[in-house]
Amino acid sequence: VKQAGRNGIAFFDPEMEARVRQRHALQLALAQAIDGGGLQLYLQPQVDARGHTVGAEALLRWPQPGGRFVSPAEFIPLAEESGLILPLGAWVLEHTATLLARWQTEPALARLRLAVNVSPRQFREADFVDRVAEVLRRHRLPAQHLELEITESVFLGDLEEARRTLQRLKALGVTLALDDFGTGYSSLSYLAELPFDVIKIDQHFVARLPQRRRADLAIVSTIIALGRKLGTTVLAEGVETAEQAEYLVTHGCHLLQGYHFGRPMPIESFERGLGAA
Ligand code: C2E
Ligand code: CA
Ligand code: CA
Ligand code: CA
């Protein structure tokens, strides 16, 4: 691999070579972590307007020796690229289903929803819906307690195909959430036409609320109003302050998620916080 790259950048550039090696090492380590029990799910509470926990989002954590974590923001893109996202996504689905099944026997937890992130590549797999159906069946789960968070990027490809997949998932009874709404390729027509139960206002907009710029306030209040008119539950993520929470609730936002209510935490901490055994 010593030819010049596409832009005339030599690939033997030692820095670039080091980066390629590092990515490769990270991919190998991730593959081992998936198989060898090296991954964990953390849970972040989702609360209603009164601050009562109604569910949680499952977020992957990859602990390293020495107590450090590799952030999912770092390894999810790598997993997408390498195809590892498929075994990884399967691992997440299986573990959330196992957890939900256990919650069904715990009065303090049985009514909670558990949201999982679905990567675009995972969503586009031909057998994705069948896998979800199989997991629901095998664990005897109330389907609506499993929430799938999907980003708008799945609509960049074949929109009709994406619509069919969503409708098949909807038919299973699972809850569908549109993640990171307002970023990237947002289109209001997605909201109106597609069977989402929840829209998640991206944390980027929430973070800007305290600056009280008219444009930001207008965007947030408009998303909430639109969601409500369409009969969709509106959730704001990245809520860090009481002031943000109050603005959102006052404008009719149904659900909130963010450091103000709880950081992503180990499963046991989340369960203990709700008074479960
Ligand atoms: P996301 O789905 O948008 O998740 C929200 C991110 O915001 C999480 O970062 C969460 O820890 C963080 N967050 C929550 N509350 C606050 C807050 O109040 N302030 C700020 N500044 N941040 C907050 P995290 O856990 O590092 O995950 C990053 C991204 O990695 C996620 O973004 C998601 O896209 C992806 N990801 C995480 N777990 C999974 C997974 O199991 N599967 C897939 N496909 N992607 C995942
Ligand atoms: Ca998410
Ligand atoms: Ca999000
Ligand atoms: Ca995001």
Automatic annotation (TrEMBL):
Residues 23-277 form the EAL domain. GO terms for molecular function: catalytic activity. It comes from the Bacteria. The keyword Translocase does not apply. Keywords: Signal. The keyword Signal applies. This is Putative signaling protein. The chain holds residues 640 to 916 of 916 of the full protein.
